[in-house]
Amino acid sequence: MLLNTSDRVELDRAVAHYRDRYTVTGLFENELVDGIMDVVDALCVGGLKLHVATSKPHAYAGRIVEHFGLEQKFGKVYGSELDGTRSAKAELLAHILAEEGVVPSECVMIGDRKHDLIGAQANGVAAIGVLWGYGSRQELEDQGPDYIAEKPADLLSWIKAG
Fold first, then answer.
1. What is the DSSP string of 6-20?
2. Among 99, 100, 117, which Cα is nearest to 108's?
3. In this entry, which stretches build a coiled coil (predicted)?
4. φ, ψ of residue 56 in degrees (nearest 5)
5. Could you tell me the residue ranges of all domains in the chain?
6. What is the pLDDT of residues 56-79, one digit of tens each?
7. 31-161: CATH number
8. Are 60 and 22 in contact (CB under 8 A)?
9. CA distance 137 to 87
């Protein structure tokens, strides 16, 4: 436990401090992975519809997407609510599938953590693990993804082959 307390008031205060900093500074401390824009552009040119599915609150995720000038590349940014609603990836992906009216077998979830793969599998969506994020190869392999990409260009190879 980071704060070594279960005091709800203390925990709420810590979350408030975190959000104060994150909304002004933290969300802009991201960097795009080398080669990812080429992949996103190729997928868009190929006619695929892309969405962001993140456990981050969509209010923050949308600002990150805008910060990098990616809003024209993605149909919609989906994330959790500030109250924690849809923070579980399986619940979030079920929501996206319903909102977009898409068939799970025609979708792919690309993610760097086991939660992304678990959420995809719970919804009948193909799951690709990527090694340029926070999860380890072992974490991803343990979930039995359809594919593990070592670099962004690997995504295109797998999608074109499928």
1. --HHHHHHHHHHHHH
2. 117
3. none
4. -65, 150
5. 1-30, 31-161
6. 999 899 999 999 999 999 999 999
7. 3.40.50.1000
8. yes
9. 23
- Beta-carbon contacts of 75 under 8 Å, excluding residues fewer than 6 positions away, are 49, 50, 51, 100
Identity at 150, one-letter amino acid code: E
> Please, are residues 146 and 129 in contact by the beta-carbon 8 Å criterion?
no
Q: How much of the chain is in helix, strand and coil states, percent to nearest 5?
A: 50, 15, 40
pTM of the predicted protein model: 0.86
Could you tell me which of 84, 62, 87 has the C-alpha nearest to residue 75? 62
Residue 153 CA to residue 151 CA, distance in Å, equals: 6
CA-CA distances (angstroms) from residue 125 to 45, 76, 104? Answer: 22, 18, 5
Alpha helices in 46-150 (DSSP H): 58-67, 89-100, 114-122, 137-141
